[in-house]
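Loading example: each entry is read as two labelled lines plus one structure line.
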Amino acid sequence: MNLKLQWLRNKMSSLDLQGIIISNPINIKYLTNINAEGILVINPKENIFITDGRYVEDVHSILTLFDEIIVYDIKDISIEDYENFFMFCQNVGFEESYISYATYKEYLKKFKIKNFIETENIIEKQRMIKDDEELSNLNKACNITDDCFKYILSYIKSGMTEKEIAKEIDNYFSERTDGLSFETIVASGENTSKPHAVPSDRKIQERDIITIDMGCKVNGYCSDMTRTFFVGEPTEEMKCVYDLVLDNQKLTLEQYKEGANTRQITKMVESNFKLNRYNLIHSLGHGVGLEVHESPYINGKNEAILKENMVVTNEPGIYIPGKFGVRIEDTVQITKFGCISLTNSDKNYIII
Amino acid sequence: MNLKLQWLRNKMSSLDLQGIIISNPINIKYLTNINAEGILVINPKENIFITDGRYVEDVHSILTLFDEIIVYDIKDISIEDYENFFMFCQNVGFEESYISYATYKEYLKKFKIKNFIETENIIEKQRMIKDDEELSNLNKACNITDDCFKYILSYIKSGMTEKEIAKEIDNYFSERTDGLSFETIVASGENTSKPHAVPSDRKIQERDIITIDMGCKVNGYCSDMTRTFFVGEPTEEMKCVYDLVLDNQKLTLEQYKEGANTRQITKMVESNFKLNRYNLIHSLGHGVGLEVHESPYINGKNEAILKENMVVTNEPGIYIPGKFGVRIEDTVQITKFGCISLTNSDKNYIII
């Protein structure tokens, strides 16, 4: 059995769970490397992946005997099979955030579960700390993202649309990686005031401000970076906002280390912004791994403590409705004494 | 208020619901045209969309006064606001398949809901029947998909990889539509035996069999079509399987009409396949609309009755592990006396 499944079985034992149903597909990928629809059922004797006809052949081709995972086609499972899976289990865990209320009721009945126990994201919590192989994949994804940014700076010309630029980025990633980690954001001019802008047909003009937020996946692991830059000399107001964002991004980097309280760091940025009459309208950062947004969530509400080998973003932003916005984002690895930036693109004024 | 929200309020009234929380983003898009993360809260007085800072500006730009929807940034909502939303509601509906067990418990507490009632997909059921505007969008999406297929047949050459072909399809759609309705499948040779194959680096060769399953979105509405075709003359076995799939696809088209029982139609195809020692390993079809897979689900288990202006697929397939597979799929509109195919690509042997 692989190390991650062994870890899970130890964890279950410490929580007095004799069985568990894993429903979050990312957790299933993390534990087994299976990338298919289905659920993972762990009982005292077996690890079982229940999928459907579309995936059976594919899942078999990924697994080896060493994995010790039995694959079932859901249509071959009888009512009795379901009742047998957890027959000798007093307590069975489930992922309360990943099954719907309807599915919860269905499982209770179908598996005849005695005590169905919420597991409070045990796997997501474990996923926050990356092992060497995961760190290597994350680093590769961030390096390719830096390369893509360098390339795209040379590619952009006045008259191109946001959509064209986004497509070029998407092609860059699709040729070199498993694909995008999220829909690429290319926003220009007043569109930069929307943190979540969708690339439009707006054409790049002289004296534009441009924000690009992009990432790719390597072996399933994501990168995430944002840069804001200028076509020709920025206005004084733009420079002012840019400096404020960048200063706070750097201050945050200095604070990121094992033991740091993410709520306090966010409060620091919020208060620096407020002193200048701006608000931080989104999170300061988030974990990055098999998901581009995962625990820990770094914002003013959530009280997380950073730990060694967490990989998180640092992305303060200021948005002035109808005018423009600035966001600068790196993906970084937390260490005992600070952090190592996996993103290495220039953060000074970039003028194209 | 728009017609769809008016319909919902009438429906709620018939179910004795004074309030409802809509969580399924597709249902929110259907009812309001809002395309953003958040929930729609309907109480006796107001329609409220609760979202976060990233989307507020964008949602405001979509809505008009006529929509009568109030937009809240989640961080401006106090504990008292939550308790007030449903203060005068005896019964509040929720979408049991679209909120997690964890969210269910959270809402119960936060909104102080007296009776929280499962609503059994009332909106999904309504979405099955398309109005004229929806039909027009679906038809446009299917037409562009036909055009793309014609183009791609002329594009494919021996030596190209599945990935290259998939990328060309993706580019075709991204230039003309809102984008893909699902990840394009291009499978060749033995890869066609996987119904859910992911495009690989396998190169197209002489005497290959190729399956392409693809679709795009127009104003959010999806198309879905599959064709299987040949590089050079197919083998006798391939012809035999192709004929069997095509005959059953045509038989199914003849059965598709208002009042038809989808379980019976599926059983017919299953039994025709079994007579030839093959199995139907996936659904025969599914509804198509804002989602590429939506109700009604057409398979051997689900007992759905077809109705006028449903739009569904018809996609029998046979898969011989390690050898090859054949699937042929159209998207069709159900009428009182039959069905109209929105997909119009050739279904006879295509040899490139």
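Chain A touches chain B at residues 52-55, 57-58, 94, 96-105, 118, 167, 171, 174, 193-196, 281-282, 321 (CB under 8 Å).
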